[in-house]
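User: Can you fold this complex?
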Amino acid sequence: MNFSDHHDNNEIPPYLEKLNEPQREAVMHTEGPLMIIAGAGSGKTRVLTFRIAHILKQGFDPFSILALTFTNKAAREMRNRIESLVGPAAKSLWMGTFHSVFARILRQEAEKLGYPSNFTIYDSDDSKSLLKSIVKEMNLDEKVYKPGMLLGRISTVKNNLISARAYSEDESLVNEDKQANRGKFADIYRQYAARCFKSGAMDFDDILINTYILLDRFPEVCHRWQHRFRFVMVDEYQDTNRVQYLITKTIAAVHQNICVVGDDAQSIYAFRGANIQNILNFNRDYPDVKTIKLEQNYRSTRNIVNAAGSVIKHNRNQLQKEVWTSNETGEKIKVVRSATDSDEARFVAQNIFEEKNREHLPNKAFAILYRTNSQSRPFEEAFRRMGIDYRIYGGMSFYQRKEIKDLLAYLRLTVNPNDEEALKRVINYPTRGIGDTTINRLLFLAGENKASTWEIVSNARQYPDLGAGAGKVENFAMMMKSFMAMLQTHNAYELAMHIAKQTTLLKVLYEDKTVEGISKYENLTELLNAIQEFSEDDESEKEKSLSNFLEEVALFTDDQKDKDPDRDCVTLMTIHSSKGLEFPCVYIVGMEENLFPGQMSLTSRADLEEERRLFYVAITRAERKLSLCYATSRFRYGSLLPCEPSRFIDEISNEFLDMNLAGMKKENPLTRFYSQRTQQPNNPVTRAESLLKPNPLPEKPVPPADPNFEAGDISGLKEGDIVVHQRFGRGKVTMLEGDGDNRKATIFFTGLGEKKLVLKFAKMRIE
DNA sequence: TACTAAGCTCTTTTT
DNA sequence: GAGCTTAGTA
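Assistant: Here's the predicted assembly.
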């Protein structure tokens, strides 16, 4: 090892002069455990990248540094920034998401655990589909054992390192399941684990737990990795779960050079097992830990920083810290009310258009953040109409599309014939006369003979039970075998192209001239191009096998295979995926009770606190301008539902908001805005609405609320009633269905131009 | 076995 | 509203 560059600790190297005191301290503290509590916008990524560069400058080998992140986006960004600091050495760093780094390790060691080295990675769709067939095979009630719920629970259990066997032997867990009316869960879990293993497949959680098992059971392997990684760094440490915590602890056990960076106030992944205690209790594992707090925010105006602080202080469970900024005070936060979700979208598009012109800003200065992916739709429409370029992150990713998954399934099956989910997907697609009956027989035979389904398929002739189906199955098997033979002789692209043609996948879509068909054909071509790029990429040091491509795809849900990363467009994304990003102007939309905070999150205080941290994350994305938008009614469940403003708006201290609300907090928020509008014609709420021309909803005097008719209650309605709705005016009830929570009223509103609406809740009175 | 129409359920966030 | 499952028909 080369220490020639090594300098005295008291001397500050010139390249670190740009950092502030605590940042520099964090960068230079490279020996021994270190915890960096980094408030939002405090230059966390900067510290991490400089720290890695600093270690490299001291002469350490890039291979000795392990840097773990949660998202591909974060990993990519960090790699780019390090590359600009230290050059090509950045390529050799072990840096990536937990899943991608550990999958890479597992590829080398999988056989020790009984997996093939070309193991498949099951994404959650594969996992759910497998669970579904297990439930079916076990003849259980599919309403009780829903795949999503099962996978969620399996994931939680796995992340706490409880194996299927340990689970069924744990009486308290099994009893708990009985109480909760899912007594068969242990059996399903067992079956699920066995089937994954038999298919040579790991799900997302297996990648983590198998890494842990590998390190735990094979001391010589553990020893090797422990010594290899002299420096371990974990970004977003507040989001680690138990296995991730154990793995990093194990790997860092020899050198003890572990550096974790996080912000408990930004922990937003508890729903998938993140354990905030990992960061809260870090000093228990490392009593001699050095703790550094980065509290100065460089990103946002003082108003935004303080508003965020006023929100997060409602949470009880957190580390003490005081985020501050020396930036200018800046504008107050706007609160914008719209009539419907589409009005909200039109307002935002219009507002962006105006701000752009007034302040000469590019499109990419703007971001729209929402709670759920489904909220993006009205914005797409509004931006298209305004001619503003936009880009939606997340949602249905390219690799989740049906046509893409179909071809990928063929590729997966070629690489790993035991991959049962892939087999089930393609055995009769395109249709080749192998129907449900035959498939079920195949699966049954596989279970009976303790063989993989592929073994049955490839020897179909030997099973008379298959009857007439045998010939068709045999043809399919022969085709697959011909693909497998090509693995040795052809590169990934040639093979994929051959498969796409041979299976007629490409041809079927080419002949489909519907809009969807054309787009599917284009998608498939794009996938083929991506494979071609992958197999011809000289830059990458990675092995260019098909198997590697499939792994990349499985772990790269992040999408954005950006053809043009510099495109100037407005960003639309969920708050979750906005973590780590920043924008001059941010619109947080859908600020409504039951949407944000969502109804699912309101069962416990912990959930509400996580939701509040999410709001904190959203606010702190904004550099200069922040608007909080909500609608008074919104399309959901296929009908228009009235909405109330989110409690989170009320949790921001008034002094940071651009509206005169002094002394009005206790009022019903709806009444508040109606009365405000008449009194103050220039308040931001009214301004927002005046921009929306034409406003589809007629301005009408608001009838006084009937004290006998509670908001959200339509129980008193009868068919034929004439009602006056707070927003939609007069209407006639034409149909009533269901009881209790399922009660629905269909009402014709004359005020909406004879429009029919199905309402589940309504604020209105009977005339 | 394959296709179509009607019915049902689900709506959080990501590797 | 969308996506998926079931029932019914060719």
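Residues 515-536 of chain A form the longest helix (22 residues). The longest strand of chain A covers residues 622-631.
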